[in-house]
Amino acid sequence: MIILGIDPGTVIIGYAFLEKRGADLTLLKADAIRILSGGDKAERLATLHKKLTALIKKCRPNMISVEKLFFSKNQKTALDVAEARGVILSTAALAKIPVSEYTPLEVKVASTGYGKADKRQVREMVRAILKLNEVTHLDDVTDAMAIAITGAHLNKNREIHN
User: Fold this and answer.
1) Cβ atoms 25, 19 nearer than 8 A
2) Into how many domains does the chain fold?
3) Host domain of residue 78
4) How far apart, in whole angstroms, are the C-alpha atoms of residue 52 and residue 125?
5) Which of 12, 37, 112, 143 is the residue whose CA sits 20 to 30 A from 128?
6) Structural domain includes residue 160
7) What is the CATH number of the domain that holds 72?
8) Residue 70 falls inside a structural domain
9) SS3 label, residue 9
10) pLDDT tens digit string along 42-77?
11) What pTM does this model have?
């Protein structure tokens, strides 16, 4: 099973493709979709849709795990992230790929065992779980890996096939 983990954002959207075989997880690809800030918002969201659609067609995930929106002190940022999440969920629906959504707390517990883990602890556990020598990715990409790991752990009994 291939799981796509996505960390929604406004200009940087982290993503990670993991392959799950039994209990083993292997990182296939991880990076970020970068959207230029400024300009027409509708065009930026359309760019996200196009780039995500291309990734889905290329890597063909069986499921997508997305971080749920959490309350933010900055309402404008929260609204912009919510719009990006809408595009992500819509793109998944159009591709007919099931989506699982997880809160930041669920992601931290699933990846580290501790709901108040900091970025460094998440990064170290992602490295250990995926058997990587080091994690040199942006935090957004590392978070996407943790979100994919959460999907793999919390959907143990859900085997989805092409």
Assistant:
1) yes
2) 1
3) 2-154
4) 26
5) 12
6) no
7) 3.30.420.10
8) yes
9) coil
10) 999 999 999 999 999 999 999 999 999 876 667 777
11) 0.92
